[in-house]
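Predict both folds.
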Amino acid sequence: MTITDLNDPEIREELGEIVQEMLDGIIEVSIPDGALPPAGGHQGTTIESSLTIEGGGEPTDLIVRIDGASAVALTAAMISESPDEVSLEEACETMGELTNVLGGSIKSLIEEETSLGTPSSGAHDTSTMTPLVSSVEVRHQLGCFEVQIG
């Protein structure tokens, strides 16, 4: 696969499978249904993390979004803390790390030499965010991730 193949709709569907495998591999937790904390103070907040994959032509952006409450629950599960003890800043850092891991997984599939930019992440008011154009939704027990390449 080349970096320009990432714009192919079939490749984008494979992206969902890559994200699912990554989440299952990294998040080795089992949370019973209904055990996630309520959205609480994070309702209406979306965590967005992004990085650039460079090489072989046009740079390609990788964008990952998840709602704030799910990002906090995910972070809490990964560090074995209570969600009440996890800040949005910590959740943003976790999403940056997950985006970096996902970027590395995608990079390993690209035949040409590529490099990854440094991930950046932040919490945003969901109502003011521009919708992603051609994203893939990946549902996980800890939340619904929206992933876009391009």
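Second protein follows, with its predicted structure tokens after the sequence.
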Amino acid sequence: MLSSFSGFKAHYAGMTVLVVSEFNEWRMLAYAPGVTLHGPRQFSETKAKENARLLVDKYVREKRGEEPPSGEIQWEPTTSEDWVVWRG
């Protein structure tokens, strides 16, 4: 299903990271050319953002063999231009 969503997006460690609200749950998706990461659903925005960072950091360490960036992720609200296809 193609749908617009509300939530937050950021560019971190060379990936686009999305944390979006779907009813009473938050979903996480991170992607870059050749890779897509899905995180577990969360029930709070804060926890979803924390888990998004942890998932990307783990990917960077284990798959790229690098240390993840330091500092905070600069989140910005999603807009009507942001779309995603969720597979149910």
